[in-house]
């Protein structure tokens, strides 16, 4: 069976004869898991966002190389760790917050502009005489550490009372002609992850934190229309390198705890 029959291509989308046959995007239907086994930090692990697509690529007539894969950018981030009435630590993306950019690359920091370079991309070198069929997939989740104590203090006293996180992403399925730099957008997905954890620091380690708010995340939205990729979603820095950890006390000036890389 040829590629085009085998993928039963009633194509979802067809661009320049590149066909996207199956596309799935979901967030695992399970709650965020809180880990309280360290006296220094609370850790939490969110469910995974997963995206996968089956592609049918027509023969490449010329001596060209195409890469097909996933590109992701962070479009909004609130990430506060509150320490009672003392203040809060906050991971921030200053350029995004100040509205200087619309999105920041969420690449692995090596494979720009791609999210990663294992299952996330496939490279096809022409000329080829037959169509190619392949799958590209990606997954993403948060697994951070938050100090029980105020991050700028010498003390190890647990004072953390709340963790609030709300982050939005846009993820594109893209075919990129490496020879001409022509980009063919095949699909746009939007998703969001929210975490809300209440902490009672007076309780013993292992029983301080609990999830509040909704247990399950909203499922991703696969857009019916393509959304263009903002230029700086394709280049350095990525979100991990661009983020800054601030301490914002109730009284007194804010402090940079960890600068951007």
In terms of DSSP E residues, the strand content is: over 45%
Global morphology: elongated
Q: Main β-sheet, in a few words? A: 10 strands, antiparallel
Q: Tell how many strands the DSSP assignment holds.
A: 17
Low-confidence spans: 1-13
Mean pLDDT: 92
SS summary, helix count: 3
Question: In terms of structural class, how would the helical and strand content be classed?
Answer: mainly beta
Query: Kindly, what is the distance between the CA atoms of the first and last residues, rounded to a whole number of angstroms?
Result: 51 Å
Protein name: Protein FAM78B
Question: What descriptive keywords fit this protein?
Answer:
5% helix; mainly beta; ten-stranded antiparallel sheet; 3 helices; 261 residues; elongated; FAM78; Protein FAM78B
Structure, described:
This is Protein FAM78B. This protein has 261 residues and is mainly beta. The protein has one domain (3-258). 5% of the residues lie in helices and 47% in strands. It has helices at residues 3-6, 94-97, 239-242, and strands at 13-15, 18-27, 33-35, 41-45, 49-57, 65-83, 87-92, 104-105, 121-125, 132-140, 145-147, 162-177, 183-199, 209-211, 221-222, 244-249, 255-258. The strands form three sheets. Strands 6, 7, 8, 9, 12, 13, 14, 15, 16 and 17 form a ten-stranded antiparallel sheet that branches. A four-stranded antiparallel sheet has the order 1-2-5-10, with no helix packed on it. It has a three-stranded antiparallel sheet with strand order 3-4-11, with no helix packed on it. It is elongated, with a radius of gyration of 22 Å.
């Amino acid at each position: 069976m040829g590629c085009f029959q085998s993928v039963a291509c009633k194509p979802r989308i067809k661009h320049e004869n590149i066909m996207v046959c199956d596309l799935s995007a979901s967030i695992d239907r399970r709650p965020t898991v809180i880990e309280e086994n360290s006296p220094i930090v609370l850790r939490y692990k969110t469910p995974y966002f997963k995206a996968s697509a089956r592609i049918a690529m027509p023969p490449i007539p010329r001596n060209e190389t195409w890469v097909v894969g996933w590109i992701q950018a962070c479009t909004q981030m609130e990430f506060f760790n509150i320490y009672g009435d003392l203040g809060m630590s906050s991971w921030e993306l200053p350029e995004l917050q100040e509205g200087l950019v619309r999105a920041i690359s969420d690449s692995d920091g090596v494979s720009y502009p791609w999210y990663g370079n294992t299952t996330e991309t496939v490279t096809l070198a022409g000329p080829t005489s037959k169509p190619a069929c392949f799958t590209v997939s990606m997954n993403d989740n948060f697994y951070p550490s938050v100090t029980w104590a105020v991050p700028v203090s010498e003390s190890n006293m647990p004072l953390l009372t709340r963790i609030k996180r709300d982050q939005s992403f846009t993820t594109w399925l893209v075919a990129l002609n490496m020879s001409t730099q022509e980009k063919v957008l095949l699909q746009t997905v939007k998703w969001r992850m929210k975490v809300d954890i209440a902490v009672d620091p007076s309780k013993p380690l292992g029983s301080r934190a609990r999830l509040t708010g909704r247990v399950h995340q909203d499922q991703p939205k696969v857009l019916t229309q393509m959304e263009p990729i903002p230029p700086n979603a394709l280049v350095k820095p990525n979100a991990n390198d661009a983020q800054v950890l601030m301490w914002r006390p109730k009284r007194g000036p804010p402090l940079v705890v960890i600068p951007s890389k």
